[in-house]
Design goal:
Elements lengths: L33 H11 L16 H11 L4 H14 L3 H5 L3 H8 L6 H16 L8 H5 L6 H10 L10 H10 L10 H11 L5 H14 L18 H5 L16 E11 L2 E6 L10 E2 L22 E10 L4 E10 L12 E4 L10 H13 L1
Parallel strand pairs: 1-5
Antiparallel strand pairs: 1-2, 2-3, 2-6, 4-5
Helix pairs in contact: 1-11, 2-3, 2-8, 8-11, 9-10, 9-11
The chain binds a DNA duplex (11 and 11 nucleotides) through helix 2, helix 3, helix 6, helix 8 and helix 9.
Length: about 375
DNA sequence: CAGTCGTGGGA
DNA sequence: TTCCCAAGACT
């Protein structure tokens, strides 16, 4: 299926002067990649809480899945403490499937991309309800589960179930684009990158191969200043031979981020502050938050204030940058003493001293810290 | 396909 | 400081 076997692994390719016939649609790799890469991995694999040492039996699929979801667009350093927290609170699918969803969202707070947490819960419920509490072991069945896309399905199939799967993440894209000096810009290059990744993926130790590619991309074949002389593949890398490996993969120009403006409303009542729950989908969906007005192209002032009280605007703002826009928040504070019935129908009064336990997304945690500092 | 969706860290 | 990225998925 991969067309990756080298001539050296079978009887002589040529006999009687007859040219070898192509065996595969995609061009066969001109050099062995998996061999030296796995050899390097055996000596240099990172030790990670969700990972089995090279060559060992596959780790718990639940832990592999949880780590893969958390690691989507997220650094290992950020994932480590959250992985420890989640595996302590919910050690398996059965526990997560019956978990209090608000507690899961609170535990996820700060990690970002909160749809992952919503899909995490949904996936655990499906696994328990339809798969008897265990993952289905085929890539196609994994792909059908909430929050599991092409990359994660392949990663779980190979790492947790020992199946051959073509695992392509940003690391693999970078390593492969450099190995073959693929000059086509992304995203058009993805077809060729995937074909090349398929061609170099071995049948045996497919999961170790995937993790080795990611370790290589993370520590050696880095986005800038790759450490080529420490790379086990540099003697067979077109990018290294070109003298400018960092130019691959070629990426499209980025668009400027728009700037938006909003207002945070800090309503106090006897040492507590009013918190609300954001709508279930969209930006920061499902997360507990401070009340906000609209996020608009110009400062919206006190529009959409959660309570009809006297607001005082602080002489400071809080800046935050999301993936696709910047946000500058004005800060409005108000005292609701004497309005004790107010607010109960729109949110909850949270003790200010325990605000860190509310599970606020970082943008609101920053605003809360700034308001408490200034007050 | 292209836009949406967070955050922290490295250079 | 500013820019860019990190084990992508979903619509």
């Amino acid at each position: 299926m991969s067309g990756r076997r080298a001539c050296s692994s079978r009887p002589p390719c040529h006999s009687g002067g007859v040219p070898a016939k192509p065996r595969s649609i995609s061009p066969p790799p001109a050099r062995d990649i998996a061999g030296p890469l796995l050899h390097w991995y055996d000596a240099h694999a990172r030790t990670l809480p969700w990972r089995a040492p090279p060559g060992n039996p596959a780790p718990d699929p639940y832990r592999v899945w949880l780590s893969e979801i958390m690691l989507q667009q997220t650094t290992v350093a950020a994932v480590r403490p959250k992985f420890d927290l989640f595996t302590t609170l919910w050690p398996d699918f059965a526990a997560l499937a019956v978990a209090d969803e608000a507690e899961v969202m609170t535990a996820w707070a700060g990690l970002g991309y909160y749809a992952r947490a919503r899909n995490l819960i949904a996936c655990a419920k499906v696994v328990v309800a339809k798969h008897d509490g265990r993952f289905p072991a085929t890539e196609a069945q994994l792909r059908a589960l909430p929050g599991i896309g092409d990359y994660t399905a392949a990663a779980i199939a190979s790492i947790a179930f020992g199946q051959r799967a073509v695992v392509v993440d940003a690391n693999v894209e970078r390593v492969v684009a450099r190995l073959y000096a693929i000059a086509t810009p992304l995203p058009a290059a993805r077809t060729a990158i995937r074909a090349a990744a398929d061609a170099i993926t071995p049948d045996a130790r497919s999961g170790d191969f995937a993790q080795a590619m990611m370790d290589l991309g993370s520590g050696i074949c880095t986005f800038r200043a790759p450490k080529c002389l420490a790379c086990p593949l540099h003697d067979r890398c077109d990018g290294f031979a070109s003298g400018a490996p960092e130019q691959y993969p070629v990426k499209p120009a980025k668009l400027a981020k728009p700037q938006r403006y909003g207002t945070i409303f800090w309503a106090e009542r006897g040492g507590s502050v009013l918190l609300v729950r954001r709508p279930p989908k969209g930006l920061l969906g499902g997360m507990r938050s401070l009340p906000t007005g609209p996020w608009a192209d110009t400062p919206p002032g006190l529009a959409d204030a959660p309570l009809d009280i006297a607001w005082r605007t602080l002489d400071r703002t809080v800046a935050h940058v999301f993936t696709h826009f910047g946000l500058e928040l004005s800060l409005a504070v108000g005292d609701v003493e004497g309005h004790s019935a107010i607010g109960a129908n729109i949110g909850e009064w949270w003790p200010i001293a325990d605000i860190e336990s509310a599970g606020l997304p970082t943008v609101f945690a920053k605003a809360a810290a700034e308001i408490r500092r200034v007050q």
